[in-house]
Design brief:
The chain is an alpha+beta fold and about 90 residues long. Helix content is about 25%, strand content about 25%.
Length: about 90
Amino acid sequence: MQVTLPPPQYDHAYPGIVIEKLLTLEEVRRLCDSIGVGAFDACAGFITLNDGSRACLIILPTDGFDTIAAYRRHEISHCNGWPANHPAE
């Protein structure tokens, strides 16, 4: 099984701050579920930092079914606006 690849318009570096958290798959599923996005294998969401700026937080598994790089690419695409239902375009 592989992580779904994003469409080209979302598949680029995020221009803002990205904070990456690496956890076991079990921990990722618990944390993603606890922040309200569901018990997924990885997730992304926006947080407000102490200085008022926003950052995209991506939570990735160290022991998932694909590489950390593949999960990172997928989740950063969500930071770039790719909807959660993963449309092809």
